[in-house]
Amino acid sequence: MNDAYAPTPEDRFTFGLWTVGNPGADPFGPAVRPKQDPCEIVRKLGEIGAWGVNLHDNDLVPFDATPTERDRIVSEFKKACEESGIQVPMATTNLFSHPIFKDGAFTSNNPQVRAFAIRKTMDAIDLGVELGAKNYVFWGGREGTEVEACRDPRTAIQRIREGMNFLCEYVIDQKYDLKFALEAKPNEPRGDIYFPTTGHMLHFIETLQHSEMVGVNPEVAHETMAGLSFVHGVGQAMEAGKLFHIDLNSQKIGRYDQDFRFGAEDPKQAFHLVRLLEGTADGDRWEGSRHFDAHAYRTEDLDGVWEFARGCMRTYKILKEKAIAFDSDPEVQQLIAEIHDPEIDPLIKKYSRDHVKKLRALHLDADLLGSIGLGWERLDQLVIEHLLGSR
């Protein structure tokens, strides 16, 4: 492999224990790979050049572990991270696997279930902070419905708000240096999940008591499943200052949540996403970690799993190189150069009665403006040529 694409700590590439540790089971068949020990996963991530590892609470500590077992497991894991130079930048809670969460965690109609979810999350937050996490992700995998009559959606929203407000207060009271990131998904495993898109999450965040400590964790597959532009969703989050974490993978539109290797199905979208994150076009580079929430194909053995992990990082670095070349291309720069009009620009950027008067007095020829070609066909062809390596 080309050493230019070898990962370095500066790339801030991370994987979840649940990603490279996925044994390949699906609804139609059992596991095809052996279960891997979390400490061994960390050591292997260090060997292949990853920067960090992320985890759900039960990826590391079994659901029914005793306090003594929990402390031993965590101690061994911390030692493995230190020896491998691996960070733990993000943690989250599994609020979807156990039968208690079959009809939601924070949204359940049963207050005992909601209390259990809050308590489990507090314990998992403690674990994440102990391991060094600065971001904490919330994916409401079971927060949804198949039977719409089971609850008023407004009640569900209120319950999630109460849960998030409670947990924000907990973090503040414990004096933890931790921010929350909310992850949207339209469906699966529920028929419909509350807050199905990043836009829904961004609005909801503004209703929280401590909205300043809550952002979003968009995922490629989750937005693409619904046929949405992931690049636009991430751009909205960045513009709002709310991109706290990101999940990178690949997905075919309209399919189940596939979680393929980054760039495997959508190199053009992945290219524009990398341009956005790296700031090669115009904006600032996003300084967060690049987390791969993806799985190796079920066809793979353990060697294939680590080939998958290398591929995610390698593809990102290739696309970064392509993005830099594309945005340095003089023809590209000419095509996308911003048009400035010193007479008009001030009038349309800020309202005043004087600006209204001047705008109404302008001669703007709609037919002439509508007849001007923009060159986007050529621009898009240049994207393809850079991606295919012919330019």
Please explain how this structure is put together.
The chain has 391 residues and is of the alpha/beta class. The protein has two domains: 323 residues, Alpha-Beta Barrel (TIM Barrel); 59 residues, no CATH class. The protein has 16 helices and ten strands. It has an eight-stranded parallel β-sheet with strand order 8-6-4-3-2-1-10-9. Strands 5-7 form a two-stranded antiparallel sheet. α9 packs parallel to α10. The longest helix is centred in the C-terminal third of the chain and has 27 residues.
Give a short account of the largest sheet.
8 strands, parallel
Q: Uncertain regions: pLDDT < 50 for 5+ in a row?
A: none
The CATH topology of the largest domain turns out to be TIM Barrel
CATH architecture of the largest domain: Alpha-Beta Barrel
Secondary-structure element order, N to C: EHHEHHEHEEHEEHEHHEHEHHHHHH
Number of strands: 10
Give a quick precis of the structure.
With 391 residues, this protein is of the alpha/beta class. It contains 16 helices and 10 strands.
Which properties best describe this structure?
46% helix, 391 residues, alpha/beta, globular, 16 helices, 10 strands
Detail the topology: elements first, then pairings:
Layout: E1 13-16, H1 17-20, H2 38-47, E2 52-56, H3 57-60, H4 67-84, E3 90-92, H5 111-131, E4 135-139, E5 144-145, H6 153-174, E6 179-183, E7 192-193, H7 198-205, E8 214-216, H8 220-225, H9 230-239, E9 247-248, H10 267-278, E10 290-292, H11 302-328, H12 330-336, H13 345-349, H14 353-361, H15 366-370, H16 376-388
Parallel strand pairs: 1-2, 1-10, 2-3, 3-4, 4-6, 6-8, 9-10
Antiparallel strand pairs: 5-7
